């Protein structure tokens, strides 16, 4: 196809890249639904029943736009995090907030540092604004704060991305280590700390940092611990001037009114969050056991998924994933070597994990058979 | 405040501009809720009960991300518009789709043509990507297709924006005239035809154009006729290569799952849409009557609002709007002269229009009193 001359040179240079193919698309291609949906880091234990009730109630009010200031939710989040509403930015999911961040901070050729194999949607946004990704390797199966800061210093990065706990590996650092990372952020850089999974991590994983610290922007979401991925609502915590800059580019009326109501109710339901934490913890143990019974080693996880080391290479893990998909078990795997030797299994209800346990032995046989070809 | 050195030069140059202050923010400032919410071009007759039911059902599934391909809705929309799914782009409201369009097409200094006083959110996106707005005046109270195309030819515009029916005036052109406009789009330009209100316009207002025509991108929404403004879901119809370009920049997982379900149900409920069309038509007549009883002239409207000519200048209309707001009637008004001599009143349930009718005489007295100061 001839390139459309109306596209900007940057837009014309971009690939039509989709960071993730959704499970529905895979189901359409295979011609059958999955038995277990364990690949998208969703929370199969679901949102708080109070959040569902609030969303059902709000459905009747959906003729009204949502409040573009997200006032009530920002007030509640500020109280929750013991900061001011001016330190809270609510948006249509972390993906959108990362996109706005790239738009604000990344121009042509600007350096951005992340880990090789970390969140591809972040890279998609950076590349989409003409930024230059500098990826450092994981150390072991951990993102490496020192390496990230050192690379940022070396290349004069505008942005540094880290997720803690990490996706796709599930590993994590202590709050103390993350605080040290913040303190060592090079001048001129903004640290983006993606804490999407933080509610599922051990106490002490979230660093104690002032919300007013201008060196860091922390990203949170209602998609994971709160079980509302389909609602598209997340937030960032940061210094007021950094938060205020988003007024220049954000889609002010972009947050769904039903999501606003659901998030507010979810945030208040500590008991349900505790229930989810317990269920996720039990499911992590179960996945590790299923792995061990089949010769696969679970990495430690502070998330709602468990990454299983298949003990071979990326091709083997890819074959295993393909065999699981064929068997109706939707899972994904890390993209970059050597982490791509793993498959990533979401925590989910017992029936889903049963289906995974049932499918895994034959899938391993298939993968091993392919490895011998 | 010192400018954050991490911002791009473009971002640093942008004002923190909010195209519209929401009614909730105004309610917080005045310390009381509005009696009638008639200012945001919302549809107070609400969405189809079947759409509400579908959204309530989907609330229980919100732990899953929505399908990033929006497959089912695109299929349904393609059938509805007798085109292919490849001609349909679903996104998180027209606002977001206009933003993506600006991102794809508008670079620093690129010329964009619109009408003075037309949709400010479009201008916000264009300016936000460094584009140069060239605004032509309305002709009478109508956007002027010939003038827009001529200006685009003169300045070598990348984009031309027109809304038909028009917001904020409510006026409209025939489909035949819009088709002629498409045929005269200058080479190198893309015509953005915002048809947000099209379901509320007389038959024949939508031009008969091939969905594959590469000169035009048509924007539709579930916010207006379908009454789902808070759900943030809209779509564009265009040539497949133009639609495909959005894969390079869009937030693939950006559409709310509940909104997807609601939109699909709303699209199928022709009877409810007919009900809304009848209610909106009756409310337009009623607003015109209320205006006439108070010496204000209603402009013809093909939308879910009626623009009332106050017969004076922008200052007078501003005072009238302020007096209505003080009286608890949320309305807005056009920004640019001479259209700013008007106030814009949304169609809504009878009780809301009763409240408007009750408040209007005293508000006019107040506005006339201020005019004498």
From TrEMBL, chains A, B:
<dbReference type="GO" id="GO:0004400">
    <property type="term" value="F:histidinol-phosphate transaminase activity"/>
</dbReference>
<dbReference type="GO" id="GO:0000105">
    <property type="term" value="P:L-histidine biosynthetic process"/>
</dbReference>
<dbReference type="Pfam" id="PF00155">
    <property type="entry name" value="Aminotran_1_2"/>
</dbReference>
<dbReference type="InterPro" id="IPR015424">
    <property type="entry name" value="PyrdxlP-dep_Trfase"/>
</dbReference>
<dbReference type="InterPro" id="IPR004839">
    <property type="entry name" value="Aminotransferase_I/II_large"/>
</dbReference>
<comment type="similarity">
    <text>Belongs to the class-II pyridoxal-phosphate-dependent aminotransferase family. Histidinol-phosphate aminotransferase subfamily.</text>
</comment>
<keyword id="KW-0663">Pyridoxal phosphate</keyword>
<dbReference type="InterPro" id="IPR015421">
    <property type="entry name" value="PyrdxlP-dep_Trfase_major"/>
</dbReference>
<feature type="domain" description="Aminotransferase class I/classII large">
    <location>
        <begin position="37"/>
        <end position="360"/>
    </location>
</feature>
<dbReference type="GO" id="GO:0030170">
    <property type="term" value="F:pyridoxal phosphate binding"/>
</dbReference>
<keyword id="KW-0032">Aminotransferase</keyword>
<keyword id="KW-0808">Transferase</keyword>
<keyword id="KW-0368">Histidine biosynthesis</keyword>
<dbReference type="InterPro" id="IPR050106">
    <property type="entry name" value="HistidinolP_aminotransfase"/>
</dbReference>
<dbReference type="InterPro" id="IPR001917">
    <property type="entry name" value="Aminotrans_II_pyridoxalP_BS"/>
</dbReference>
<protein>
    <recommendedName>
        <fullName>histidinol-phosphate transaminase</fullName>
        <ecNumber>2.6.1.9</ecNumber>
    </recommendedName>
</protein>
<keyword id="KW-0028">Amino-acid biosynthesis</keyword>
<dbReference type="InterPro" id="IPR015422">
    <property type="entry name" value="PyrdxlP-dep_Trfase_small"/>
</dbReference>
<comment type="pathway">
    <text>Amino-acid biosynthesis; L-histidine biosynthesis; L-histidine from 5-phospho-alpha-D-ribose 1-diphosphate: step 7/9.</text>
</comment>
């Amino acid at each position: 196809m001839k390139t459309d001359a109306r596209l900007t040179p940057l837009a014309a240079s971009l690939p039509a890249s989709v960071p993730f193919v959704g499970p529905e698309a895979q189901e359409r291609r295979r011609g059958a639904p999955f038995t277990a949906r364990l690949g998208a880091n969703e929370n199969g234990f679901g949102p708080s029943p109070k959040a569902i009730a609030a969303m059902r109630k709000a459905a009747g009010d959906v003729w009204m736009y949502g409040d573009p200031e997200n006032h009530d939710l920002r007030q509640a989040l500020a109280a929750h995090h013991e900061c001011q509403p001016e330190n809270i930015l609510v948006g249509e999911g972390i993906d959108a907030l990362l996109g706005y961040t790239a738009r604000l901070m990344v121009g042509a050729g600007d350096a951005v540092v992340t880990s090789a194999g970390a969140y591809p949607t972040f890279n998609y946004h950076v590349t989409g604004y003409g930024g230059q990704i500098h990826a450092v390797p994981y150390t072991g199966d951990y993102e490496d704060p020192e390496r990230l800061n050192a690379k940022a210093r070396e290349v004069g990065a505008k942005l540094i991305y880290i997720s803690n706990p990490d996706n796709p590996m599930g590993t994590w650092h202590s709050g103390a280590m993350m605080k040290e990372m913040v303190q060592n952020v090079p001048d001129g850089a903004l640290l983006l700390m993606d804490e999407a999974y933080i509610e599922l991590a051990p106490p002490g994983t979230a660093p104690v940092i002032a919300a007013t610290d201008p060196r860091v922007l922390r990203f949170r979401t209602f998609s994971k611990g709160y079980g509302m991925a389909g609602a598209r609502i997340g937030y960032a915590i940061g210094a007021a001037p950094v938060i205020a800059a988003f007024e220049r580019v954000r889609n002010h009326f972009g947050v769904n009114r039903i999501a606003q109501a659901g998030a507010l109710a979810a945030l208040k339901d500590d008991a349900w969050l505790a229930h989810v934490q317990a269920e996720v913890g039990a499911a992590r143990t179960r996945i590790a056991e299923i792995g061990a019974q089949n010769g696969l080693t679970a990495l430690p996880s502070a998330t709602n998924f468990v990454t299983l080391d298949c003990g071979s290479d990326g091709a083997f893990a890819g074959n295993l994933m393909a065999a699981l998909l064929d068997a109706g078990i939707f899972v994904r795997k890390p993209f970059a070597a050597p982490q791509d030797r793993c498959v990533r299994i979401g925590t989910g209800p017992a029936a889903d994990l049963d289906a995974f346990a049932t499918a895994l032995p034959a899938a391993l046989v298939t993968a091993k058979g392919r490895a011998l070809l």
